[in-house]
């Protein structure tokens, strides 16, 4: 958050594009200046739960508390109507909790995950899944770019602030640490330029859900 997040905001400012930042309550408490800046820069503030605990590991009471406490905190900065569960894991029976807390959009599914292709419960929420996992963006361009061009609209890409810190020697899975650091920022920049050249329109999640 102290190195990767400001670099991400600087990149979006330079490229003049909006984004959605799914932010945990703990992050907002620890880095309020970051949240204030992303809102001031015109980005959407979305909820990512309070503690980054997978909702599939929470009881209904715990899940309701996570959603409610995060909403109360984040909404002191901006309207918050978009939600993404940590690890893209949100059991369908928790969707009514989001509806009851005035959320309009859920982006807690990934098209690259098996759960996306299973039947989903009925909900009033607009569901906008992530198109690919973040490590795709750090692939060599000759592999990555043809795949990015084939993504159906809306192409929903995501990254994490930690990816812009060099973690190549960290004891984490290789696909998480490969290409991290300044090269990850270069990769994201080149992906943005690719879509700009294709005439893409960059939108926040809340805007993508608008009629």
Task: Please describe what this structure looks like.
The protein is mostly helical. It has two domains: 18-130, Alpha-Beta Barrel (TIM Barrel), CATH 3.20.20; 131-201. The protein has helices spanning 4-15, 25-30, 32-40, 60-74, 95-100, 141-149, 174-177, 182-197, 205-208; strands at 20-23, 44-47, 82-83, 105-106, 126-127. The model has no long low-confidence stretch (mean pLDDT 95). It is globular. The longest helix has 16 residues, at 182-197. Helix 6 crosses helix 8 (182-197). It is built from nine helices and five strands.
Helical/strand content category: mainly alpha
Strand residue percentage: 5-15%
**Topology as a string of helices (H) and strands (E):** HEHHEHEHEEHHHH
The number of helical segments is 9
- Cα-to-Cα separation, first versus last residue: 34 Å
Radius of gyration: 17 Å
Which of globular, elongated, flat, extended, rod-shaped describes the shape? globular
Give the helix proportion (percent range).
Answer: 25-40%
Query: Sheet bearing the most strands, described?
Result: 3 strands, parallel
Strand segment count:
5
- CATH third-tier fold name of the largest domain: TIM Barrel
Count of structural domains: 2
Task: Identify the CATH architecture of the largest domain.
Answer: Alpha-Beta Barrel
CATH top level assignment of the largest domain: Alpha Beta
Q: Can you tell me the residue ranges where pLDDT is under 50 for at least 5 consecutive residues?
A: none
Average pLDDT, to the nearest integer? 95
Across the major sheet, the strand order is 3-4-5
Please name the fourth-level CATH homologous superfamily of the largest domain.
Glycoside hydrolase/deacetylase
